[in-house]
From TrEMBL:
CDD domains assigned to the protein according to its UniProt record, in alphabetical order: yflN-like_MBL-fold
Listed Pfam families: Lactamase_B
UniProt-listed InterPro entries: Metallo-B-lactamas, NDM-1-like, RibonucZ/Hydroxyglut_hydro
Domain Metallo-beta-lactamase as annotated: residue spans: 24-236
Gene3D superfamilies for this protein: Ribonuclease Z/Hydroxyacylglutathione hydrolase-like
Highest taxon listed in the record's lineage: Bacteria
Name of this protein: MBL fold metallo-hydrolase
The organism of origin for this protein: Methylobacterium soli
Length: 283
């Protein structure tokens, strides 16, 4: 499910959903073509130095100067907030995230160190070089509503899907069974640089080198599989849809311990404690 390509390098996969791949990570745009200023929402904010690509895609889809009504974050890892500070300021847009991600978004806490010991390929080995320090959008940061609704997006709800990050969330629309899953699971073998670049579609658990609570990650995949989505857009890899995708997601949930959890790694036996010292208790 590659989608139709449009202006700004976007892939259109539905009347009001599109994405752009930034090297190896996806940025998602929710809203109909031509929605105009404040008529759409951005999900995640790409890699460092990707501001121009994201703005180009947004203006090609929604119109010149079109700003989002909000920026939603699945989580705060470096490849999902690379230009968050710049975009939030340029667009004067509110940023919504789960409260457990706020320490990593308001400048107060760094993520636990990546785990190169999980194996799987070059990206895993290079992971100690990935930045873990927080960004700071405290002046625009707000919690996602406790009732599960998504600001400015009627018909969508957010689901807490921790494991890859304490406050990781996914976004779900029941009407057409569309799931924006972030990194709760992905559709490419993200540990391998070759797979990350070629994007051969196949379901995998969350990127292993940055996942710090594997029991939570399993429960999150089980919860998402139970939704029986018809279309999934993940943080890494191509969107997938249909019965074959659902069967693969069911298999991933059922066999998670065998196929998703690495055989070794610093967080396999014991989840990481948050860097700010607070207790991590998934909601």
């Amino acid at each position: 499910m590659k989608g139709e390509e449009s202006a700004g390098g976007l892939r259109i996969i539905g009347p009001d959903i599109a994405y752009r791949r930034i090297v190896f990570v996806n940025v998602v745009f929710l809203g109909p073509a031509g929605a105009g200023d404040r008529g759409w929402v951005l999900v995640d904010a790409g890699l460092p130095a990707s501001r121009g690509a994201i703005v180009e895609a947004a203006e090609g889809r929604f119109g010149p100067g079109a700003r989002p009504s909000a920026i939603l974050l699945t989580h705060g890892h470096f490849d999902h907030v690379g230009v968050l500070e710049d975009l939030a300021a340029d667009w004067d847009a509110p940023v919504f995230a789960h409260p457990l991600e706020h320490p990593y978004l308001n400048g107060t806490a760094a993520y636990p160190a990546p785990d190169p010991g999980v194996g799987g390929g070059l990206l895993a080995r290079l992971s100690p070089l990935f930045p873990t320090k927080p960004v700071d959008v405290a002046d625009r940061l707000a919690p996602l509503p406790q009732d599960g609704t998504v600001p400015t997006l009627p018909g969508w709800r957010w689901i807490h899907t921790p494991g890859h990050a304490p406050g990781h969330v996914s976004f779900w629309r029941e009407s057409d069974r569309t799931l924006v899953a972030g990194d709760a699971f992905v559709t490419t073998a993200q540990e391998s640089a070759y797979a990350a670049l070629t994007q051969e579609p196949e379901l995998h658990g969350p990127p292993m080198y940055l996942t710090t609570a594997w029991d939570d990650a399993r429960r999150s995949v089980e919860a998402l599989a139970a939704l029986q989505p018809d279309r999934v857009v993940t943080g890494h890899g191509r969107p997938l849809q249909g019965p074959e995708m659902r069967r693969a997601l069911d298999t991933l949930a059922r066999d998670f311990d065998a196929v998703a959890i690495p055989r070794s790694g610093r967080y396999v036996a014991e989840p990481a404690a948050p860097q700010d010292g607070s207790a991590y208790r998934p909601a």
